[in-house]
Design a protein that fits this description.
Pfam families: DUF3700. It comes from Pleodorina starrii. InterPro entries: DUF3700, Ntn_hydrolases_N, TSJT1-like. This is DUF3700 domain-containing protein. By secondary structure, the protein is α+β, with helices and mostly antiparallel strands. The protein has one domain: Aminohydrolase, N-terminal nucleophile (Ntn) domain (Glutamine Phosphoribosylpyrophosphate, subunit 1, domain 1, 4-Layer Sandwich). About 20% of the residues lie in helices and about 35% in strands. Strands 4, 5, 6, 7, 8, 12 and 15 form a seven-stranded antiparallel sheet that branches. The protein is globular. The chain starts with a strand and ends in an 11-residue tail after the last strand.
Length: about 290
C-alpha cells in the first residue's frame, strides 16, 4: 500500500518548469507581487488540499505541517515515510536509502547502533537527507547545481523526496533512477505546485497530475531583485523564472562525465488538443554522439 505524502507550494514559494501549467495558472504565476486577499486565498486553498488528503490518510500515522505562503506538507509517518526539519529546511522522504554520498552506509550505521545499544546517528532517512542537503553548497552559487547532481548520482536506494528551504527560498524534488517510489506532480489553476505519492491526491491539478520523471532533480529558487519603475523609487520583488528539471543519470559514453538531457513530450487530449507536456530523461544518442 502506498503511503500518502503531499507537498503544496504557493506562487511565492516555487515555480514549476514550463509546460505543466494551464493558461489560467500562467497568468497568475507571473504576477510578481500578491495582494493580501490573494495570499489569503492561497492559504485557504492550501489548507483545503492538505485537509482533504489528511482526512483520507490513516488516523494513527497522519501528520501535517502548514508552512505559510500557500504552502504545506502532509505525510503518513512510518519507517518508509518520514519528515524532518532543521534551520528552516523541511524534508519529506519516502523509501529507503542504503548509501548516501561519501560512502555513508545508513543501513550499517543503524545496525551498528542497534548492536551497541546506542542511539542511531540519524533518526530516519529524512534526517539523513538534511545532512546530505547541507553539502549542496550555498544557494545562488555557480557550483550548486553541479554539486547537487553529483551528489544525487551517488545515492543508492529507492526514494522520492521533496525539500523546502524557507531561508533561501528553494524547493527541490527528486525520484530514484528506477522510479521505484511513486511521485506525481502538477499545477493548479491557482498557480500552486503540488507533489504527491498518490495521484488521486492531486486531482486539483490542470492539466492532470503526471508521474515525476525518474532519475531527475527539480529545483526552483526565488531570487530577490530590485528595479526602478520610474519616478517612484525602487521596488523589491521576487523573480519569476521557471523551475529547472535536470537529470542525474550519466551518459553511457565511456570517458564522459556529463548527465543526460531531459526532454518535454507534448500531452495531447482525445480531441487532439495539446495540453502541456510530460518530461522524460533522454536515452537515445543523437547523430552528434550526445543524448537527445
Amino acid at each position: 500500500m502506498v503511503l500518502h505524502m503531499l507537498a503544496v507550494f504557493g506562487r511565492e514559494t516555487a515555480h514549476p518548469p514550463t509546460l505543466i501549467e494551464s493558461e489560467e495558472a500562467l497568468k497568475k504565476t507571473h504576477q510578481p507581487v500578491l495582494a493580501d486577499e490573494e495570499r489569503q486565498a492561497e492559504e485557504d486553498l492550501c489548507a483545503k488540499l492538505v485537509d482533504a488528503v489528511f482526512n483520507a490518510a490513516k488516523p494513527s500515522s497522519r501528520q501535517k505541517m502548514m508552512l505559510g505562503k500557500g504552502s504545506g506538507m502532509l505525510w503518513e509517518a512510518s519507517p518508509y515515510c518520514s519528515y524532518a526539519v532543521r534551520d528552516g529546511v523541511h524534508v519529506l522522504f519516502t523509501g529507503e536509502v542504503s548509501e548516501w554520498p561519501g560512502g555513508v552506509n545508513a543501513v550499517s550505521a543503524a545496525h551498528d547502533a542497534f548492536v551497541r545499544n546506542v542511539p542511531p546517528l540519524e533518526e530516519n532517512d529524512a534526517h539523513w537527507l538534511l545532512d546530505f542537503y547541507s553539502t549542496f553548497g550555498k544557494p545562488s552559487s555557480d557550483s550548486t547545481t553541479g554539486r547537487a547532481l553529483e551528489c544525487m548520482a551517488q545515492i543508492k536506494g529507492s526514494y522520492a523526496f521533496v525539500v523546502y528551504d524557507s531561508v533561501h527560498h528553494r524547493v527541490l524534488a527528486a525520484r530514484d533512477p528506477d522510479g521505484s517510489q511513486p511521485l506525481y506532480w502538477g499545477c493548479t489553476d491557482a498557480g500552486q505546485l503540488l507533489f504527491g505519492s498518490v495521484p488521486e491526491d492531486l486531482e486539483g491539478c490542470n492539466p492532470t497530475a503526471a508521474p515525476f520523471p525518474a532519475g531527475t532533480l527539480f529545483a526552483s529558487e526565488r531570487h530577490t531583485v530590485a528595479y526602478s519603475p520610474g519616478d517612484y523609487g525602487w521596488v523589491i520583488v521576487d523573480d519569476d523564472f521557471p523551475g529547472l528539471l535536470m537529470s542525474f543519470l550519466r551518459t553511457a559514453k565511456e570517458g564522459e562525465a556529463c548527465f543526460r538531457n531531459v526532454k518535454a513530450i507534448p500531452r495531447v487530449t482525445s480531441k487532439g488538443v495539446v495540453c502541456g507536456a510530460v518530461y522524460k530523461v533522454a536515452s537515445v544518442p543523437d547523430i552528434n554522439g550526445g543524448v537527445c
